[in-house]
């Protein structure tokens, strides 16, 4: 081989090697992206659907009047939204625990963690109920108009059932997500969203229930999603991880509370 041919041969080596790596890299990226979106896609749909329900309720309330719009917006995004953020954080403690248990093939522990999370979040749901009950008085003390504060307090009281729905539904979503079964939640909430639009229209405009109808539509839509997901998870959809109610759920509750509360405050 002469010097010119040798130089030409060497100059082509990186292209041949790179050409072999790039298709392999693309395949790996594609496979990893599919795994990521199997979890992230349904989770994003679930969040968007639940957030969209609140937006729909506020949009319909806007047709009733400025005060009704302000009352529903404050009750949904401030009062209920603050508690939702806290419960989201508390439920996220399950991500670490359930992820470790699933990786270690201790599948039955996922059901135990779910029950512990339900116990802890239901207790906090009771403790945080005054944020709904006394929201009107708090807003008045903060300088908001009396009539608006009274209306917000009324809507917040109607939304109180949503507080306990958060406590059960959010840990259930994490439980399914850790098993890569959150596609069930994605499908359920995607179907529940148009149902919520119809319910809101019926209760607020057809039956003329006003802000009460807006709150009840939210309660019913979230409750419908909860019932469907409970039916799936506890009715045979997760046979490896759900073995029924267990007394072990009451064990190590103190440590679970610490982890959940810290996550809740962080969020």
UniProtKB/TrEMBL annotation:
<feature type="transmembrane region" description="Helical">
    <location>
        <begin position="118"/>
        <end position="135"/>
    </location>
</feature>
<dbReference type="GO" id="GO:0016020">
    <property type="term" value="C:membrane"/>
</dbReference>
<feature type="transmembrane region" description="Helical">
    <location>
        <begin position="210"/>
        <end position="234"/>
    </location>
</feature>
<dbReference type="GO" id="GO:0015297">
    <property type="term" value="F:antiporter activity"/>
</dbReference>
<keyword id="KW-1133">Transmembrane helix</keyword>
<feature type="transmembrane region" description="Helical">
    <location>
        <begin position="69"/>
        <end position="97"/>
    </location>
</feature>
<keyword id="KW-0472">Membrane</keyword>
<protein>
    <recommendedName>
        <fullName>Protein DETOXIFICATION</fullName>
    </recommendedName>
</protein>
<feature type="transmembrane region" description="Helical">
    <location>
        <begin position="183"/>
        <end position="204"/>
    </location>
</feature>
<keyword id="KW-0812">Transmembrane</keyword>
<comment type="similarity">
    <text>Belongs to the multi antimicrobial extrusion (MATE) (TC 2.A.66.1) family.</text>
</comment>
<feature type="transmembrane region" description="Helical">
    <location>
        <begin position="155"/>
        <end position="176"/>
    </location>
</feature>
<dbReference type="Pfam" id="PF01554">
    <property type="entry name" value="MatE"/>
</dbReference>
<dbReference type="InterPro" id="IPR002528">
    <property type="entry name" value="MATE_fam"/>
</dbReference>
<dbReference type="GO" id="GO:0042910">
    <property type="term" value="F:xenobiotic transmembrane transporter activity"/>
</dbReference>
